[in-house]
Amino acid sequence: MKLKLLFMIIIGFTLNVDAYSNVKKPNNLMDFKKEPVLFALNDTYKKELNHKDLFALKERTLKLAGKSVPVLINVMKSSDYPDKNRWIATFLLGRIVGKKAAPFIAKFSKHPSWVLRMASLKTLLALKQSDYGPVYAEALGDSSLLVRIQALENIKGLKLKSYGSRVWAMLYDQQNYYNVKNVYKRTNIIKNVIKTVGDLELQEAKKPLLVMINDKKYDDIFEEMDYSLGRLTGKSSPKGEKVNKRQFWKRVSLAETKI
């Protein structure tokens, strides 16, 4: 439920990249304790808030615009605040400061809290920050499944084709599988990986996918492989049964085999 609440809050956030010229880090709490309005805002961020109050907090913060930046930075940096409030502070910093906040926000991609790591990546995506490919690529191996999914979404959404091989490597990361009676099963992120390599036009994935799609042990990711092969070859398998699609891709594989 907490995650659902966070995602619902994010829907209303449209980032403005020119709203504030620079990120000014507060030297200490006194930077805003002198301002009663900012002190009160900071105090509200310390509270566990319901859905309605969170939206009210967002509106208060946006109304203060650049003046709220020291408070937002303090909230992000301190564990004294609830995770969902720190998440919101990250998004609001991006919305108020814009792309100039990206270097600071990117630092949180390595934060001990997965919530902050995910908020960092999601905000960078909303800011359309394609220069942070190495940050996203590293996050593909994060210990949190949700962070890995977000990193994958960043690379796909920003069309960072040069990281296609790093995405493909996720198929070999044991974190992306779960163990059932000593048998490893694929998590849903594997489906995302397969589709993403197609969207990124990773040609090195074509040959192994042509082999995999004709192996029934990969039936659970058949649709994703069919999709990606279509993107990689420029060809579409016939509509209907899997058997017909498999025959089609088998013919494609044979046609591409060099003797």
Description:
The protein is mostly helical and 259 residues long. It has a domain at 1-127. The chain has helices spanning 2-11, 30-33, 36-45, 51-64, 69-77, 83-97, 102-106, 114-126, 133-139, 145-157, 164-168, 189-199, 206-212, 222-233, 242-256; strands at residues 177-180, 183-186. It has a two-stranded antiparallel ribbon. Strand 1 (177-180) and strand 2 form a beta hairpin. Helix 6 packs parallel to helix 8. The longest helix is centred in the middle third of the chain and has 15 residues, at 83-97. The radius of gyration is 22 Å and the shape is elongated. Residues 7-22 and 25-29 have low confidence and may be disordered.
Question: Which terms summarize this structure?
Answer:
259 residues, mainly alpha, two-stranded antiparallel ribbon
Distance between the termini: 57 Å
Q: Describe the global form.
A: elongated
Number of helices in the DSSP assignment: 15
Indicate the mean pLDDT. Answer: 89
Q: Give the beta-strand count.
A: 2
Residue fraction in strands: under 5%
Strand order of the largest sheet: 1-2
Structural Rg: 22 Å
Structural class: mainly alpha
Task: Flag low-confidence runs.
Answer: 7-22, 25-29
Biggest sheet record: 2 strands, antiparallel
Order of helices and strands: HHHHHHHHHHHEEHHHH
Describe the structure in brief.
It contains 15 helices and two strands. With 259 residues, the protein is mainly alpha-helical.
Topology record:
Layout: H1 2-11, H2 30-33, H3 36-45, H4 51-64, H5 69-77, H6 83-97, H7 102-106, H8 114-126, H9 133-139, H10 145-157, H11 164-168, E1 177-180, E2 183-186, H12 189-199, H13 206-212, H14 222-233, H15 242-256
